[in-house]
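Posting this for the archive.
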Amino acid sequence: MSSIPVDLERESIEVAPDLVGLVLVHVKAGRVTAGRIVECEAYGSVGEDTCSHTYRGRTPRNAVMFGPAGRLYVYFTYGMHHCANIVAHPHGRTGAVLLRALEPVEGIELMRRRRGRDMPDEQLCAGPARLVVAMGLGPRDNGRRLDSGRLHLVDDGCRPGIVTGVRIGVSCAHADLPWRFGVAASPCLSRPFPR
């Protein structure tokens, strides 16, 4: 995985803060959309993190999280939205990092058309479901490699200050772990970090 600018073969809790500031690029039908990761959440391994999709073991839905690191895990939730995760874990473990918010960098008008609304740039990718739609991602991207050319991460040298908080929208025994990472000053967050 030499073309991926961060080592994804580590525990998701170690990878998540290293993803903040990187740019996710998606090329679809020759059109490019890109957004800087400004918020994400780590989810752990089988039997350890009750909030993780892998907690109870392998299913058809979560199978990508059991495969090699460096792929996208896209799942359907609440009967209406797709969310995207970067699979990150050492060999023999499971884990992923949920992409919660991006700061739009390229293809902003295309993002706006995909979202079907006239809205400020900072709201285009402010939330897991919003960013999936804006970036043109979907179920066909489940399992797609992050070094495929069509989908990749770019390190342009941006090193923002990172803050942590508890994960959002989960109710489980480990919900209060500080496994949410982001840029506190970003106007593109799905939800502000507590001060």
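The chain has a mean pLDDT of 91. The chain is about 15% helix and 25% strand.
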